[in-house]
Records
---
Amino acid sequence: MQHRRFVLLGLGGVIALIVAMTLVGLDQNLTYYLYPTEAVDRRAEFPDGERFRLAGIVVEGTLQRGEIHRFEVSDGGATIPVRLHNNPPPLFDEGVPVLLDGSWSGAVFDASEALIRHSENYEIPDRGGTGPGS
Amino acid sequence: MSFWHQTLELARVDLTVERRLGETLRIIAPFALVALAIFPLAMGLRLTLVSEMGTAVFWAVGVLFGMQVGLRRSSSDDRERRDLHALLGVDPSARFAGRVLAGSLLTTIFLVVLFLAMTVLYGPELPESAVLGATLAIILAAVGLAELGTIAGEITWGLRDRTALASLIVAPLAIPLVIGGSQTLQAMAGDTGILPWVLLMITTDLALAVAGVALARPLEEATR
Amino acid sequence: MTRARAFLGIAALALAVGLWMAMTAPPDALQGVFSRIINVHVPSLWLAFLAFAVTAIGSVMWLWSKRPRWDRLAMASAEVGVLFTAIGLVTGMIWGQRVWGTAWDWGDPRLTTTAVMFFVYLGYLALRGAIDDPVVRARRSAILGAVAVVQVPLVYFSVYMFRTLHQIPSIRPDGSTMPREMLMAMLVNVAAFTILYVALVMARMEVAAAEESASDAEAMAGAVVRPPRLSEVGDV
């Protein structure tokens, strides 16, 4: 192959750059959602009204359905109260991992849309699987 | 003639032909400007969104039409010229490099014109410092697009419908450039780091350069 | 009966068994009956990955040996791969609409990389369609086929490298996170889809071989009186 040295060096360079990108946190920057702990830590970056996505599990016992659904999401670390202004998908319930689209409004997260984040776990109902876990 | 000497000569010929035919600035750029105008018209009266989508539309239009610059007619030789190059022992990689050099220059000019038009037509909110980031992103994108256009041009050389076909083959591969470029501008607007995005574009450009050089001779044989 | 027909018969049988197992396996606690769609979605995409890898192998082998059979293999495998990718995308969208609440999510790297892979191979097929001369066609698509395969690991590992909406695989080398019944149904369907893949590729290759010998005969018999085709008087 012509210019073999260039091709091999180039390939090495590409691999090195890919490693560099992960080190520099490209995967973090391409992250399109935050967990509650991160959202709270980075509260200053997202002023009221600035849209982002929040992912967490609906805390048991906090769900109040209605015109505006109210509940709390948590990742085991921080817990954030949420107001959801649209109807969530059918599988939405307590203990379910959700992905919310919205923004901060004071200490509450105002969400306009909720998606269910299904984990890789599957469970049979009568074997004690009440939820998808994750 | 050394590799670099060949490259520069071929780039110069390319640019001279383009200067005479003028396809880039006379056809592709105006068409892209029309495309820029179509988006806000399609938005109708939701004008508040126009300034927000300015940079995004710039990159979408810039990448799609920028690829066409790489496919310009002046850069595709006819059979006689190719045979002449082969007989003279011109290094196929030098042909690739020369085309990319000329193409990068033309695409950079194209993207700069497009960017200026976008700032006027869409009025995005960008800080003063964004100029530097935008320039860097534009140059990196231009190189990548020139590389993509040259490779696609070679694969589809001599075929009918070659422009649409080449664009189809190459468009998915241009996505890292779109992401890198638009995120660079967003990062400048939001005052966060541009390093990951610049690295993404550099990696894409380097990977394409490797591909272009490695495939240069097989492609030349494939298009004989 | 040709080999391809025999395989198609076996594939039909295997798919019937797979379907039966999928429908009798217990549904998931959260998703309900919609979990059963993974028995189509996952095998389709796995076989699509395999198909594109085979295309790359066929491309490289053709470039090395120049024997037409490799080119036919590359082409047939790419066609089946595109079909399976489409099936995977559609079933994924049906599942997503029900479970996630949306049929598509632009931020998710796995979905985007899969869509890109789909379009790249559509481009591969479009390239082949635009060339009449078999040798030129084989050459150029071999180059594209060998390079485009880099999409496959990108799609597979995207779900590990980035934070995504799409979950990580439930079946991994270090074990699975599915109950035994569901896992068995899934594996049977993977086997059935594999047989289907082999059958479809064989059938497609047989058709391609028949087409080539037909056009060879035509060229030998009536070349003098055959009217010139558009591609021969076209540009450059």
---
Amino acid sequence: MKVYLVRHALAVEREVGLPDESRGLTPEGAKSFAEVVDGLQVLGIRFDHLLHSPWLRAVETAELLMPLLEGESEVTSLLAMAPNADLVKQIKGDNVALVGHRPWMGELLALLVAGRVEDGDRYEFKKGGVAVLEGKPVPGGMRLLALYPPRALRALECG
Amino acid sequence: MIALDVLLEHLRDNLESAATDSDAEGVHQVRVATRRIASWLELAGRRSLRDDLRWLRRRAGALRDLDVLLARGDTPAALRRKWVTARIKAHQELSAAARSARVAGLLESLAIMPPISIQEARARIPTIRAMVLRRGEQFCEDAVDTEALHRLRRGARRLRYALEWVGEDVKPLRRLQDVLGAANDAVVALAHVDQEGNSPEDMRYREKMVVRLSEQIDEVVKEWGVHRPWIEKAGVV
């Protein structure tokens, strides 16, 4: 099984009166991530399950990933909090994408690879970045195959 | 601008009463509200969250279908007992769904969706209208195909909700939807009898449903002919 952890693309800045969960993508963030999706397409990546956080920037990032989805998308409040056992249980399918936020995506990566969330900040997870994992979705049951910065995936699209 | 807030509040309230008290009207309203919200997402050009609404709607729908069947006075007693048992299980599934992280995420996400403009919504209506006309033609080519009937029913409903979002009068569509809905009730009853019925009494009930379905299909063909010209112009400014 492969798991693709995706950090949301570039969102509008925090501002007074705008709740954090209501921050959507900037036009540049959306455009840039659309190129990331093209890069994933060049790599032949498809998902049979797409889980995403309910926050607007994650919903809009998930929306841009829809052309790669051949199954069902699922919003879950578990991606808007620190990763836990319930979230890990939700990872079902052969090629599953999860779209969420920092620091939790790094912590989820660390949990799946090393079995402990404390190592999450060891991974440089850029906005619009994608980590590819393979193995069994249990704590410590996966290995990291790639951690793509968005620039690398955009370059694939151009090439 | 068209915002979701009022309808979302309606969904929250009814989901609570459907999940807690198994309230039949609440279940019905959950089904309707999830469809209307899916229509709003379609007009907003969003694909995300529609699978989640469908997932929730299926759970409410399973319960609602049983409520409609049980509301009929002519159901054989043995089938009725099976459907009462099935209703308890369907209610447990809806309650579990209502308390899931998926529905919590769905409600949180819908609450922060930015409103859409009426122009943006109107721009998507011609595509929906063309889909309904296409499905109507397909249904008329083979009016005994219940799958074509089902597609037309869903298409007509999508057009109705889309028109309602932009403030159009949809009275003529309601009549078509009523006859499509009545035909679908017979299809659902037949599916349940085929799955769970086995006594001679069940088979007599089945025959009654077959006759009712044929009558309703005739009604749909007639109403489609009456309403088609209106649909061709629906939503045209």
---
Amino acid sequence: MIADTSKKRVKGFSFARLKRLATKELRETLRDRRTIITLVLMPLLVYPILSLVFRTVLMSSIEDSSGSKPVALKIVLQSNKPEQFSASFIREMRDRIRTYELAEANERTPAVPLDTSSAAPPVKNLLSKTRFARFSEHEWLFSDESDLTALQDTVLHSDISLGVRLDFPDAVPPDHWHLCGITIVQPDSELGDEAAVYFRKQIERINQEQIAAVLREKGLPDTQPVVLKPTMIAKDANAPPATQSFSLASLIPLILVLMTVTGAVYPAIDLTAGERERGTLETLMAAPVPRVSILLAKFFAVWTVAIFTALLNLIGMAITVWTFQLETILLGAGGFSGPVLLKIFGLLVLFSAFFSAVMLAVSSFARSFKEAQAYLIPIILLSMGPGLLAMNPNLSLNGVWTIVPMVNVLLLGRDVISQHVQVLPAIFAVGSTLLYALVAIHYAAQRFGADNILYSNQGSLSDLIARPVSVQKHFTTPAAMLTLLMLFPLNLIAIGALGRLAEPLADDYALLVILMAVFTVVSFFVLPSVVGWQQRVQFKSAFGARLPKFRFVIPATMLGLCMWPLLAILVDGWYELTGLLVGEEAAATRQKTLLHLTQGQVERFRQLSPIVVAFAFSIIPAFCEEWFFRGMVMQTWLKAKPNTSPWKAILFSAAMFGFFHVLSNSAISLDRLIPTTLMGVLLGYVCYRSNSIWPSTILHSLHNACLVFLGYYQPQLSQLSWFPSEGESIPMTWAIPALIVSSISILVLAKMESPAHDIRGLS
Amino acid sequence: MIEVHQLSKAFEVNGRKFFAADNVSFSVSPGTVYGLLGPNGAGKTTTMRMVLGLLRPDSGYSEISGIRSDIDSDGVKGQVGFVSAAAGVYQWLTARELLSFFGDIYGITVAESRHQIEQLSQLLDFKHILDQRCTTLSTGEKQRINLARALMHDPPVMILDEPTLGLDVVGSQTIFSYIELLKSKGKAVILCTHRLEQAQRVCNRFGMLHRGEMVCEGSLEELQQQTQRNDLVEMFIDLIAQDEATTPVSGVIS
């Protein structure tokens, strides 16, 4: 009865099967009450509650800011003609505006009382009433200065609501005032925004009236050009960003994204870590099915739930916004429109693909529901970071931001809502997000059901920090990762502390430099070594500190001397590339600022003795960083994954190396990431081939030394005719020999016989 | 059919190496039920996992129908039906949905899958619960579903890791009569159990594992000769007595 079924088997990949597998996963998830709660109840409850809170806050802030006293509109006027000349125009303009105000006040239905003790008035009416009440008093001032920057200064540094500059053509009779050019200077405040919008509106009315008058006069069809054309000078570019109001539009993508994530969390955990908890994981692993198909099926299920959540959230939000009349406040005059909603939904679909994949990858590590929650909750909280970053109105979707996960989608979301989407950055954002999702699924497929997840138990903290009874050749992966994690905050704190000390120690630069060196030693040498002692590791093998064969020292030395011109070219190329993305000008400004910064540091280096410079900027950082990145991080990885390509270890340590350099380069400057990571790859390769950190230490310190001493001896070097002067790009006569020597060195390294340890082919 | 050659696997616990399987060898031919016996922690489960290709051995190898599990684990998995005591069910799926899912996983066609569900539900007497969600099933019913699940692709080899754990007398009786049936159908079965009396009845050959090592191996008669004991229970008691007499270091090296 059991036997004799046909032996036909479905081989290879089949979409129909994938669909059936995904349906099973989806069915399992959707039948679970817990999924339904996050899926349906949250959007049903959260948005109305949020909108109530939002309304209350908004109302009280409107009352606070408007009060019963109307705000006077203080306008400073400036003209290229004397005051007498402009006076008639100003009078005319003022009178007309006053007429409009009066007419508008009469048209208006009896105003809603500002006293809100009665039932809550619709927010929209309240706002228009407020705006009207605000500028019912006008104060017109005239500035004697004729310079536009002087006007900008006045507007930015006083309580003026608006600056207006009038530019009359040279030969113009006083009654032809409509030929005047108008420039609006707007202060950097909410009131300024409002005043500018208000003033512009009034000017447009004058325009229309003027056109009507001209048409009446000449009997022409109404295709006349606008007579008065106000040019807006938006906020001062140098103003501190803190004073900029953040746009509420940026809040919407963040809320939607967080809600979508909330929807995907439960299924992601349930379909991965839940499998082990239910005891179905081993059964699944005992089947001859590629993990990738299982994971793909799970991914589609989680993604579907996330999309459903997104859709329900979007509907919930749209209904709430519509019912409570919040669209104008949140989204500006355009409000929600079908295409905008569709685009936001599209972005949520993309984002939920990314987050579903990431969450599957993370929860595939977990052995239980609890463990998965422990991993995912911090990740969700951390993802608030990029979310908040994307709310910064000064940040726009360009340059590196197009490929920073989460931030790119949120910025794109903001652009979609404000309807200012640029194509190229949008393509980068979408493309990179999809790529990250694919990488995450691939990673999840590798981890899901792996031996150590399937059979090992959750380790306790004491397992992690227990001192082994015998000497170990290498660090355990958790020990190395924990050290890496400890270094992250330690670095941030040290950088902050050094930044604070920079000013009091301005006179004693040498001390600051020594402190920097001490910090490098403590974090990258002392801390890993203490962990090494605690874990009883053999330093020689665990940090790769074996003596190398001498033959590896020569190519490492050559590379150390030859990499700087190539790296300089690379950095130039990077700016060219960002120039394409951000626009030449912005990239050039950034490049200049960075050069300037370096130049400032170099000036101070020159006060130090060359020996101190050599130690503090070349030898000590090179040694300590090699000790940690090529030593602890890379060796641990090589040992932990003996069957995988060593490139993974090299790339991982290089990425960490790049990441920490970005950190230490203050704030979030991503410009150093790519060159430093590439340098890390080279260092990792040298270390791997020679099976020792010493050749890469030599390379690293020589490279640092070249860069530092080029700056140090800049005055002397610039007198040499054959040396490229500062700011000039590296000439081919330098780049080509450098390229040849480094290529030969790398070839020699690749061909040279590696020490007969556990070297695996680098393919 | 199943050939196991000197399988070894060690785990590291607190920096110490612990051998879960140490040079374990045996073979199982079609129509044979091989009883892999031993006290808890003897290495039975680890050995089974290596045979199935779920764990990579440190040394040695095993093969099923000439396919080595360390080389082509998917090839091996396709030949095996695996039931373990720890195996759970997807509680939100119905029995039918669960079985079709595994049919899919093992790559059998939808039509074949339907046919198998029909046959197996009759054979294992769970036709009446086919459309119930697994969360509503009793332990015995779940275990029967699990057995059926392992047979969906009609494998020539069955690996059963304590399939009667947690079942009542009737429940385990059903399972054992089922194993008899598997034997008569010419399948090669590895059975790991603590129900020694039933094992003695149903198995053709036995392997006694202790601290990762195969202590004795063969048919019941051969075992009786080797140990001078009549039945498995006595042999087992001897084994545990030895365990208490010696200090537990033989399986542990630093």
